């Protein structure tokens, strides 16, 4: 086991560093006033501070379930398990599937790969193409593992979004081999044009769908969830109980109070989408003019821009140079199982200002 490069980097950087590294939402968009009002309401009530049930408070599970149902994905509170961030959701699932083989995308989310390693899961990587996994390779791997972890919307790190065709093909393969999908969807709401359907929607009993308020509201409350069939939720609760009894009650009550006004949350989501879209387009345009040798697609949602240099450049070595000049990004090799240095980079574009984006990219160019 090694620590996550990103967590280490977050500790190493100071206020003067321009960071394109962490997946930090833009705190200027946090709904501060509304969260304050919600907090003031719930902190008057003693039940806010009491132990609560392991699967999460009823109100919050109902609110999450209702959002799925409104999208045509019938869900009740019995299908929801509240977790301490979706990071814990992954940990619970990794414990549930301990020591199994698992098919993952490559590149994939670093935090998930570390959890899988910690729980003895053996990962098989399948290359991500522009519209989702290489489907033939996926089937080849999945027919043996019968378990897969995918991030189909605005993937971390690659920003890839699965096409309708790939979603259908993946679902068909999962059904064909009667296997299991872990669908991680923290960025699904951060679309710039349209929302894509969850793959889980066509897999009634064979999926675990993960969600989170970290990217849509605030990460520090640490509230995420798992959506699955009721029996599976009951099994996962045994693991959840043994980890922390229940996720923070205060956080759950604040979120539930905030979510009572559905329109307010919708307006907030739209504000983030508009802001991130503008940032993504600016970042992409700046990259094209400042570092034209870096090939990438303009993101269509989420928080990341991913790409690579035409020529062979060790981006892990390059970031050490950039760090000396107080700019940081995540080198692409961190998102691969074997971590062999490559020419790829993940940039987070949501947290920096327009000025910082231009300045940071110019510094990277000077380090090249
Ligand atoms: N899954 C993915 C793909 C992520 O990018 C992240 C956060 N970087 C998480 C899960 C964990 O998010 P949280 O625990 O804050 O919900």
UniProtKB/TrEMBL annotation:
Transmembrane segments: none
Domain Aminotransferase class I/classII large, residue spans: 29-362
Lineage: superkingdom: Bacteria
MF GO annotations: pyridoxal phosphate binding; transaminase activity
Keywords: Aminotransferase, Pyridoxal phosphate, Transferase
InterPro entries linked: Aminotransferase_I/II_large (IPR004839), Class-I_PLP-dep_aminotransf (IPR050859), PyrdxlP-dep_Trfase (IPR015424), PyrdxlP-dep_Trfase_major (IPR015421), PyrdxlP-dep_Trfase_small (IPR015422)
GO biological processes: alpha-amino acid metabolic process
Gene3D superfamilies reported in the protein's UniProt record: Aspartate Aminotransferase, domain 1, Type I PLP-dependent aspartate aminotransferase-like (Major domain)
CDD domains: AAT_like
Requisite cofactors: pyridoxal 5'-phosphate
Protein name (record): Aminotransferase class I
């Amino acid at each position: 086991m090694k620590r996550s490069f990103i967590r280490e980097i977050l500790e190493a950087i100071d206020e003067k560093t321009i960071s394109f590294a962490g997946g930090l939402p833009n705190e200027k968009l946090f709904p501060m006033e509304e969260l304050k009002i919600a907090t003031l309401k719930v902190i008057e009530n003693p039940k806010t501070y009491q132990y609560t049930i392991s699967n999460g408070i009823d109100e919050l599970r109902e609110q999450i379930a209702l959002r799925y149902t409104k999208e045509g994905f019938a869900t009740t509170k019995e299908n929801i398990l509240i977790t301490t961030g979706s990071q814990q959701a992954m940990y619970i699932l990794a414990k549930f599937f301990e020591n199994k083989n698992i098919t993952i995308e490559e590149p994939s989310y670093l935090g998930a790969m570390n959890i899988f390693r910690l729980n003895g899961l053996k990962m098989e990587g399948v290359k991500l193409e522009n519209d989702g996994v290489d489907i033939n390779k996926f089937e080849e791997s999945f027919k043996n593992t019968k378990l897969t972890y995918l991030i189909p919307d605005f993937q971390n790190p690659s920003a890839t979004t699965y096409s309708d065709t790939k979603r259908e093909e993946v679902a068909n393969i999962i059904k064909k081999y009667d296997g299991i999908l872990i669908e991680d969807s923290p960025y699904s709401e951060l679309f710039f044009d349209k929302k894509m359907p969850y793959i889980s929607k066509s897999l009634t009993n064979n999926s675990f769908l993960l969600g989170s308020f970290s990217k849509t509201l605030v990460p520090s409350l640490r509230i995420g969830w798992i959506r699955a069939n009721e029996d599976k939720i009951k099994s996962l609760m045994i693991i959840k109980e043994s980890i922390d009894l229940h996720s923070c009650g205060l956080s759950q009550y604040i979120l539930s109070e905030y979510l009572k006004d559905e329109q307010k949350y919708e307006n907030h989501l739209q504000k983030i989408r508009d802001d991130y879209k503008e940032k993504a387009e600016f970042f992409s345009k700046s990259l094209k003019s400042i570092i034209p040798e870096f090939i990438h697609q303009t993101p269509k949602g989420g928080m990341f821009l991913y790409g690579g240099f035409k020529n062979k450049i060790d981006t892990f070595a390059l970031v050490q140079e950039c760090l000396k000049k107080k700019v940081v990004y995540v080198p692409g090799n961190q998102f691969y199982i074997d971590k062999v240095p490559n020419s790829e980079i993940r940039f987070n574009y949501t947290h920096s200002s327009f000025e910082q984006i231009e300045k940071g990219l110019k510094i990277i160019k000077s380090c090249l």
